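[Automated response] Your request has been received and processed.

Submitted sequence:
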Amino acid sequence: MEFSSNKTLRTRRWLLAIGVTGLMVSASGCHDGPLYGLKVINPYYSQKQWKEDEKYGITDYKRRKELEKLVGTMPRLNKDRQAYWLENLDQIMEHDESPEMRRLAVMAAGQLNDAMADNIVREGLTDESTKVRMACCETLASRNDAEATRMLAETAGSTTDQDVRKAAFAALGKHKGPVATDALKIALEDRDPATRGIAMRSLRRTTGKNFGDDPEVWIAALEGKAVEQQPVRFAERVENLIR
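Generated structure:
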């Protein structure tokens, strides 16, 4: 069978390598995550074919399910297991052709706050797939560290993908401090009304203030001018209490 790209060849070789090196089964005899077997040749097989395919290696369906589990359990793993999985998630980002697998890799890595996890998310922010880049914004929204804020602000200011840009501005609403506020202030001058609306909603969340629905009024307030506040909306007060 001929493959369409060098990346495909590299993917097959990498998956073969990890299969040979013993990542297929854990010491207890149970499957040890999405990387323990070979990736099957055709990722588009039906459920009827899975049983036959599993004679040759783990199906993409099961790999995805394993990664979905990892997203939920990653923070509870001990440091050694987290380091082990971060190495493998990094390999997924580099070699796996499936945007869904890379999206899940980002979601799993983003549960942690360390340098390698940041590198995986940072790589995801430049991924060719919009869904992967948006997943990076989503996972960064749940973190409150300065590096996460910086990555979101940088993405919002540099990306040309409007969906990703809006996701970054929405995520910045869950971050505090001048980096988030300054990035959202820039969004108030955007030509797109939807982007300006997202910026104002995010500013209400991050500042705890409400200057209405006029971007110019918000800009004036952020520049220190005297502007009359409106009551913060009930739904946003509840959201701020939950966060």
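Summary generated for your ticket: The two ends are 52 Å apart (CA to CA). The longest helix spans residues 79-95.
If you did not submit this request, please reply to this message.
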